[in-house]
Specification:
The complex is a heterodimer of chains A (about 300) and B (about 1150).
Chain A: H1 2-7, H2 9-18, H3 24-47, H4 54-81, H5 89-98, H6 105-110, H7 171-196, E1 199-200, E2 212-213, H8 221-226, H9 230-242, H10 249-255, H11 257-261, H12 281-287
Antiparallel strand pairs in A: 1-2
Chain B: H1 10-14, E1 22-35, E2 40-51, E3 58-61, E4 67-73, E5 76-77, E6 80-82, H2 99-112, E7 122-125, H3 131-135, E8 140-149, E9 155-158, E10 172-175, E11 195-205, E12 209-212, E13 215-221, E14 227-239, E15 245-248, E16 251-254, E17 261-265, H4 270-276, H5 280-290, E18 300-305, E19 312-315, E20 318-322, H6 334-350, E21 356-357, H7 363-405, H8 439-460, H9 462-480, E22 493-494, H10 496-507, H11 512-518, E23 525-534, E24 539-546, E25 558-566, E26 569-577, E27 583-587, E28 600-601, E29 607-608, E30 621-626, E31 634-638, H12 642-651, H13 655-665, H14 671-682, H15 688-704, H16 716-723, H17 740-753, H18 765-776, H19 788-801, H20 820-838, H21 845-859, H22 868-873, H23 880-897, H24 900-912, H25 916-928, H26 943-956, H27 961-975, H28 989-996, H29 1003-1007, H30 1023-1034, H31 1040-1056, H32 1064-1075, H33 1080-1088, H34 1100-1118, H35 1122-1145, H36 1151-1156
The chains are: A mainly alpha (about 300), B alpha+beta (about 1150).
Family (chain B): Belongs to the TAF2 family.
Keywords (chain B): Nucleus, Transcription, Transcription regulation
Main location (chain B): nucleus
Chain lengths: ~300, ~1150
């Protein structure tokens, strides 16, 4: 009777709040706590209390829970200390001893006469493991696989799933997509640059409309204006590799652009590739006598500068 | 120790030099220090002179801006005098603002230092110890130490403002100049006719290379090993203007085909240099082959520099190019341009550098020959079509220029040297010196010169022509190996008479009339042709008329070729243009019949099927061409029916004929023209430039046919068929520019299509969307060529599609009221311009197009007009093409918005910009798109501007001949030849007359006799003040109070009497009353103070003449020179006449005379 009086108000409230959070783990937690409360209530009744303040009840429940948790944690630690994964009875005993509990009193206490029997907590949503989606029919084991082996997983996890949309191979769509993609990238990039740097505007009233990245003079303007940009070089390499056949010597020459950058003076005299190259190229190279390639002379002693 | 001596006694300088010609055999120049940090140069020169006259006591050399430390003649210190009259053309002349006066003063100044006349800025007195030696005609050695500090002309330093050593910064220096400008960087005889051999030494930083003329003998380190000295020897006699120098941390490329040819470029550009130079050997081979002569120098060097003065400049054994000519293999458009530049430079190596000229008037021979052989190269490399197209282009150019500006004279003769004998009175500059020529004129001069060479070729055949060249070259090369003493060197100088003599020797033909017509005479021929077919006689009656009265034209008498395409074939007829014969009867070969089965033979032997339904059933004529070979420098306006032009376009195989037909078809907007043009567009055998021209013509025709046009917009379906995908016609194929003809067509068609207009005069929506789609779907990933020019032209197409915004009472342009189409366009432009910052295109072509587009948007009122964006792009440090485009926009803004601050900004740039080319371009663009002209009033036209421009040409541009002529040109465009009208009336009218020693009235007065003269503009109101205060400052003997009082009094009365009804008589009687008994000068004063404003009937002219009189008095007071008095009489007489005319129209009674007849003859009747 008393227990009912004690127990009823709290779960009701809980259930009210639990309405909002209905996840299985939450429910499980709530059920456990409710059980604990019942335990605390019954212990109190055992000790002769007729009623208890709610706050006191909560505090006691909290203490109880902490104690049990601590026992569990310590027992686990003890067990892991001995390189095991599952705590045994002796682990718990050691723990209890560690926590200053007289273990010998436990059997007596457990067999006390006025002990109240509490029903086991209801198993609410204990198995929270979601059910896997079953798509298609699972394959049965072939004959050479014993039946006790695990079943095949769902077919969709290991075989090609047939889809009914054609891959985008329509020329128009591809072009459209490439164009809009490039445009989007360009727009985003330029907008970003415009937002992060200095800008100029075409309109006085709305500076943010059509922002133009500010023109910055450079010390050597001809370099960027004359040298092909990296993108162009890249394009060139790509087209060259793909269209190696119909190359003329001029293109070939420019394809060497990137290598030429590091070329030493000696390489300057290398003939451009192509059909016109004389066979004795190596000899030729050594024979080139150009005054600008000659070594600089050391000053003569009599020379006065 | 400081500088040269300023000449204390100018009269001493002008005394005639005792020596007509000195011959400097050897010339040694040594520059031993080039400081990039300070932009200074120190060196010395040593000339060896062979006096040819007795008593050589004075040596004149050319030198500008050099600081001369010492001069020694044969180791004796020699005193010297430095005077450069071109520094300031008009001395102590603060008020004179008349271009006629300036031009003559400038010519005189240039003549005063003209080396060909034995003059020079630097006059060295030969030490008296040597005089005797001079008598014995001994060699003299003149040694001059000099330095240059921050030279403004002659040498250009490019020192980029980045970190690192000078070599890492790509700092370089090079010589430049217009014509003979070597005097700017070392003292010399700066003449093309003074040849000598050269020894050149340049000591530069060890990281640098000094490239100069001649053979590099050796390179030696200095003792500290930090510098090296480049020793050059040029054994071939060369004129000083053909000497050049370039120093910089150049990358060196030995030409793989010709090891004696070396190329130099700035750091990092070597790959481009390799690509660009890969075809130079072909040009060499070509010239050597046609001239049957080896390249005259033992080596050749090409140097590519930044901030070049001109694209191409040739010097003895080397050429300096703009670095912007370099290109990679991905660039299509630049390649032919650069090839042409190289070919030009090389042609000038033969004629211009190796063979120099006797005098300035022989320049046309050199320019003519080099231009002509360059043309032959074009023909060989780019084909006959390209060549003929080029000839037509050049011919059109020269014809247009001469008809607009007056004749171009190739070989001027100056008899007597008097100004009156000016052979080109129509020009606002003198053609006596290369340094007084307008740049535009000089370009046209070169153009005409090579066209005339071609005419000579037509006359004597190419074979003989090349023989003549070969003869000139072989004589010169024989001479070049001789010693000076053998007196052979003059063989290396070409003269007009020598050239003509060789022609007659080689060909045996008399080309006298041809030379007289085109070389000794200026002007082109303007023909008008029309015809009628006489069916009875089966004769073509051709009428050819000439206009030889308008400016720039001349009369042609002689043969003319006419080609008639008939049904039976093409027939050439040579007609004789004579004095009075206009009509020519040409018998026809074929009857007007229709044999449908028969093919029609063409000129080239081809036989074609034609649909003859369009032609006139009675006439066998298909088309007629006048002077098809362009063997006359002429413009032909020929009238023939539209179907004849259409046949000509379709079936004539000559590109010139096709182009003529296209331009003629513009005025025949018919479906047949449309069809003919479309057919040409589609025909891929047709020359691509013709097809390009057809695009624009088709756009024009479509606009004229707007109401009857059927089908999609012109060219759209054609473009779709040629360049778009088969499966999805709205999407353009991915770029593949391997076929250049279709590349050019693909580039051009959208630009032409954007010119289409609908009934509302807007670009059709369909066309705009089409262009936007082209931009959207442009995909260059698979292309081996860059698409930067293509994209730039797509932006140009967007620009072309713009039409003026519908403006509602001048509202402010905001983002919100932007037209939706314009918004799309603007978005594309913004994106392109921003992308360019991240991935710059070759030569920033896209930025250039975007700037033009933005200016067009502003101009059409879509976005607010604002120059600040352009000004930021015009800054130093942007690529030169971008700067030019931005400046063009600023100049346009200045004109449209009449902004004086922008004009000021531009003029400041002209004075301060580091790049000479930019300065030149600003002035020439201003002259092309002037903020105002002499014809129209403008608030911009004020005294301060006149003063500024005057100062600019008078002294501000003394370091650059070209720039000075540009300034003169601009001044001419803005104000004309006479005194600018915005100036205060000519107080100094008389001063001018005295100086010029002419009895001519101040030209201002003349100019204001024109229509609109009597109007007194409010803008001249302030001048009133000037006039008043002027005499009070200058003349102390005038009673100030009297003047002021009387002035106030008159003014008061004038205001009272302002009403039109007031009889003038009263007014003048009033004056008479007031001034009776007053001192004469104050009477004058009071009269002067009578402004024109309150009295509309009094012409400005009369006011100005009063001023003249006023001055008359001043001068009487001040100078009292009889000579002047004499002049004044003249002047008065002149005024009398003009006054009379004026008086007739305005009913001025005799009244003014009553007060002023005594000393105001101009007003007395």
């Amino acid at each position: 009777m008393l227990s009912r009086r004690l127990a009823t108000p709290i779960p009701e409230k809980r259930s009210g709040s639990s309405k909002t959070s209905t996840s299985p783990t939450d429910n499980y937690q709530l059920a456990r706590r409710r059980t604990l409360q019942v335990v605390v209530s019954s212990l109190l009744t055992e000790c002769g209390f007729e009623s208890a303040e709610k706050a006191a009840m909560e505090t006691l429940t909290e203490m109880m829970q902490s104690y049990i948790t601590e026992v569990g944690r310590c027992a686990k630690a003890t067990c892991e200390h001995t390189a095991r994964s599952t705590p045994t009875l002796s682990d718990v005993v050691i723990t209890l001893v560690e926590m200053g509990f007289n273990v010998d009193t436990l059997p007596v206490y457990a067999k006390r006469s006025q002990r109240m029997v509490i029903t086991a907590p209801p198993i609410t949503n204990a198995s929270v493991v979601p059910k896997a989606l079953i798509a298609g029919q699972k394959r049965t084991h072939p004959t050479y696989i014993p039946s006790h082996f695990p079943e095949f997983p769902d077919p969709h996890t290991y075989i090609k799933t047939p889809t009914f949309r054609e891959p985008v191979s329509d020329y128009q769509v591809v072009r459209e997509k490439a164009a809009s993609q490039r445009r989007d990238v360009e727009r985003a990039l330029t907008r970003f640059m415009a937002k992060t740097g200095e800008t100029e505007s075409l309109f006085k009233d709305d500076i943010s409309a059509f922002p133009l990245i500010a023109a910055k003079p450079s010390a050597i303007p001809y370099l960027s204006a004359l040298l092909p940009s990296e993108l162009e070089l890249q394009t060139l390499e790509e087209t060259d590799s793909s269209e190696q056949d119909d190359q003329t010597d001029t293109e070939n020459n420019s394809s060497n652009v990137s290598q030429d950058d590091q070329s030493a003076d000696k390489e300057n005299v290398v003939l451009p590739p192509g059909g016109v190259v004389p066979t004795g190229k190596a000899n030729e190279e050594n024979m080139i006598d150009n005054p600008y390639l000659r070594p600089v002379k050391k000053p003569k002693v009599r020379r006065k500068k | 120790m400081l500088s040269y001596k300023q000449n204390p006694d100018p009269s001493g300088l002008h005394s005639r030099r005792c020596m007509n010609r000195k011959k400097d055999k050897g010339f040694e120049i040594c520059i031993n220090n080039i400081n990039f940090q300070r932009k200074s140069v120190i060196g010395y020169v040593e000339l060896t002179i062979f006096p040819t006259v007795m008593n050589l006591n004075r040596i004149k050399l050319n030198s500008k801006q050099c600081r001369i430390y010492r001069v020694r003649v044969n180791d004796l210190e020699a005193p010297f005098i430095y005077n450069d009259p071109t520094l300031e053309v008009c001395h102590h002349e603060s008020k004179q603002r008349n271009l006629n006066y300036f031009s003559s003063a400038y010519t005189a100044a240039v003549s005063a230092v003209d080396p060909d006349a034995g003059n020079g800025e630097l006059s060295i007195k030969v030490p008296s110890e040597l005089w005797k030696q001079g008598d014995e005609m001994k060699v003299m050695k003149v040694y001059i130490e000099f330095s240059l500090d921050q030279p403004k002309g002659g040498l250009h330093f490019v020192v980029p403002d980045v970190d690192g050593s000078m070599a890492e910064r790509a700092a370089h220096v090079f010589s430049f100049g217009n014509q003979n400008s070597t005097r700017f960087w070392f003292p010399c005889v700066d003449s093309y006719s003074e040849l000598c051999t050269w020894k050149l030494e340049f000591t530069v930083d060890a990281s640098m290379v000094a490239v100069s003329c001649g053979d590099l003998v050796e390179t030696v380190y200095t003792h500290d090993m930090r510098k090296k000295t480049f020793h050059y020897m040029l054994p071939i006699p060369t004129a000083a203007p053909n000497i050049s120098l370039a120093v910089g941390p150049f990358e060196i490329l030995v030409d793989p085909y010709m090891h004696e040819v070396t190329h130099f470029c700035l750091p990092q550009l070597l790959p481009l240099l390799k690509q660009t130079m890969s075809y130079l050997h072909e040009i060499f081979e070509f010239y050597e082959e046609i001239l049957t002569c080896r390249y005259p120098y033992s080596c050749f060097k090409t140097v590519f520099v930044d901030e070049a003065y001109v694209q191409v400049s040739s010097y003895a054994s080397m050429s300096i190019f703009s670095t912007n000519l370099l290109h990679s293999g991905m660039i299509i458009d630049q390649t032919p341009v650069t090839r042409r530049c190289l070919a030009q430079a090389l042609a000038q190596q033969f004629f211009g550098c190796f063979i120099s000229r006797m005098s300035w008037s022989d320049e046309w021979v050199l320019k003519g020959i080099s231009g002509y052989i360059y043309g032959l190269y074009l023909k060989k490399t780019f084909g006959v079509n390209e060549y003929r197209h080029w000839i037509k282009e050049e011919l059109d150019k020269i014809v247009e220029y001469e008809l607009k500006m007056g004749g171009v004279l190739l070989h001027p003769t100056f008899s007597g040297g008097k100004e009156k004998d000016n052979p080109t009175p129509h020009l606002h500059f003198s053609i006596r010196h290369p340094h007084t020529l307008s740049w535009e004129y000089y370009k046209m001069f070169q153009c005409k010169a090579h066209l005339v060479m071609r005419l000579i070729e037509n006359r004597i055949s190419m074979e003989f022509m090349l023989q003549v060249f070969n003869k000139l070259l072989s004589l010169a090369s024989t001479a070049s190996s001789q010693k000076y003493q053998s007196h052979m060197w003059s063989q290396m100088l070409v003269s007009t008479s020598g050239f003509l003599k060789s022609i007659s020797n080689v060909s045996g033909k008399d080309i006298g009339p041809l030379i007289k017509q085109w070389v000794d005479q200026s002007g082109v021929v303007k023909f008008f042709g029309s015809f009628a077919f006489n069916r009875k006689r089966n004769v073509l009656e051709l009428e050819i008329r000439q206009d030889y009265t308008s400016s720039g034209t001349q009369k042609y008498v002689g043969p003319i070729k006419v080609t008639v395409q008939e049904l039976d074939g093409s027939f050439n007829h040579t007609l004789q243009i004579e004095e009075n014969s206009l009509k020519h009867d040409i018998p026809c070969h074929s009857k007007s019949r229709r044999n449908k089965k028969k093919k029609i033979p063409l000129m080239n032997g081809e036989e074609v099927d034609m649909d003859l339904s369009a032609m006139d059933a009675d006439s066998p004529l298909l088309w007629i061409r006048i002077d098809p070979d362009m063997s006359i420098l002429r413009k032909v306006e020929f009238e023939q029916a539209d179907f004849m032009w259409q046949y000509q376009l379709r079936f004539e195989r000559d590109v010139v004929a096709q182009e003529e037909a296209i331009s003629a078809l513009e005025i025949f907007p018919t479906p047949a023209s449309r069809l003919a043009l479309t057919d040409i567009l589609e025909q891929d055998q047709c020359f691509y430039k013709v097809r390009i021209q057809a695009c624009f013509c088709l756009a024009k025709i479509a606009n004229s046919m707007m109401s009857t046009w059927t089908g999609p917009p012109a060219m759209k379906s054609l473009f779709t068929r040629m360049f778009c995908c088969k499966s999805c016609p709205n999407i353009v194929k991915t770029n593949n520019f391997i076929n250049f003809q279709s590349y050019f067509l693909q580039k051009t068609m959208p630009v032409a299509m954007a010119l289409l207009r609908d009934v509302q005069n807007l670009c059709p929506k369909e066309v705009l969307n089409f262009i936007l789609d082209l931009i959207k779907y442009n995909d260059n990933r698979k292309n081996k060529f860059s698409d930067n020019y293509y994209r730039a032209e797509l932006i140009d197409a967007l620009t072309n599609s713009l039409t003026p915004a519908i403006s509602i009472n001048n509202e402010v342009r905001t983002v919100d009221n932007l037209n939706t189409d314009v918004r799309l366009i603007l978005e594309e432009i913004t994106r392109f311009l921003n992308m360019e910052k991240l991935l710059p295109s070759y030569r920033n072509t896209i930025t250039v197009s975007c700037l033009r587009a933005i200016r067009m948007l502003q101009k059409n009122g879509h976005i607010p007009s604002d120059p600040s964006l352009f000004k930021s792009y015009a800054q130093y440090g942007h690529f030169v093409d971008v700067r030019i485009a931005a400046l063009e926009a600023v100049i346009d803004y200045t004109r449209v918005d009449r902004s004086s601050s922008e004009l000021q900004w531009l003029l400041d740039l002209v004075q301060n910009d580091p790049v000479h080319y930019i300065r030149h371009e600003i002035l020439s663009m201003l002259a092309k798109n002037p903020p105002f002209t002499k014809a129209a009033d403008s608030l911009l036209c004020n005294e301060a501007l006149v003063d500024q421009l005057w100062k600019l040409m008078n002294s501000g541009t003394c370091h650059d001949w070209r720039l000075r002529c540009d300034a003169v040109n601009l001044y001419y465009t803005l104000f004309g030849l006479t005194r600018p009208s915005c100036l205060p009336l000519p107080e100094l009218g008389l001063v001018l007359n005295l100086k010029e020693k002419k009895a001519v009235l101040n030209p201002t007065i003349k100019s204001e006799q024109g229509p609109g003269g009597p109007e007194y503009r409010p803008s001249s109101q302030p001048n009133f003040e000037n006039r008043l205060t002027f005499p009070t400052q200058e003349e102390e003997d005038i009673d100030m109070d009297t003047v002021h009082d009387s002035q106030a009094f008159i003014y008061h009365h004038l205001n009272m009497l302002e009403r039109p009804s007031t009889p003038d008589i009263t007014l003048f009687q009033l004056f008479a009353l007031i001034f009776t008994g007053k001192e004469p000068s104050s009477v004058e004063q009071a009269m002067l103070s009578m402004p024109g404003t309150p009295m509309p009937t009094l012409s400005k002219e009369s006011t100005s003449s009063k001023h003249g009189d006023h001055h008359h008095h001043h001068h009487h007071h001040e100078h009292k020179k009889k000579k002047k008095k004499h002049k004044h009489k003249h002047k008065h007489k002149h005024k009398h006449e003009s006054k009379d005319k004026d008086r007739d129209s305005h009913a001025f009674s005799n009244s003014p005379a009553s007060g002023r007849s005594i000393r105001s003859p101009s007003l007395s009747d």
